Amino acid sequence: MPRICPSCDGEVPQRTTGRPATYCSTACRQAAHRAKARARTAIERAAEARAGAARDIEHALAVLHQARDALAVPLPAGQAGHGRHRRRRW
Q: DSSP secondary-structure letter at 25?
């Protein structure tokens, strides 16, 4: 059964000795290598973009926390120490 070149779907010539060839020609081997390198570069760029977005979100969240703390209104005496989930008494 003949092997198929993963780059061009052509038939890979069989050798009599040594390791079987993967690609039908040097041109196909180089084209596959370049395609893999482009894919790696695209993945790395996407990862950098996600990391940058995460940093931007963390920064925005820190700014929001600072703004919230700056605008915080002190509670009247008697209510200090109660958290957000204060139990209601009917």
A: S
CA separation for the pair 56, 49 (Å, rounded): 10
Would you say residue 82 lies in a domain?
A: no
Supply the range of the domain harboring residue 25. 3-69
Residue 81 domain-assigned (yes or no): no
Interatomic CA distance for residues 43 and 36, integer angstroms: 11
Q: Which residues of 61-80 are buried (b: 16+ CB within 10 A; e: fewer)?
A: eeeeeeeeeeeeeeeeeeee
Task: For residue range 35-56, list pLDDT tens digits in order.
Answer: 999 999 999 999 999 999 999 9
The pTM of this model reads 0.52
- H-type helices in the chain, by residue range? 26-70
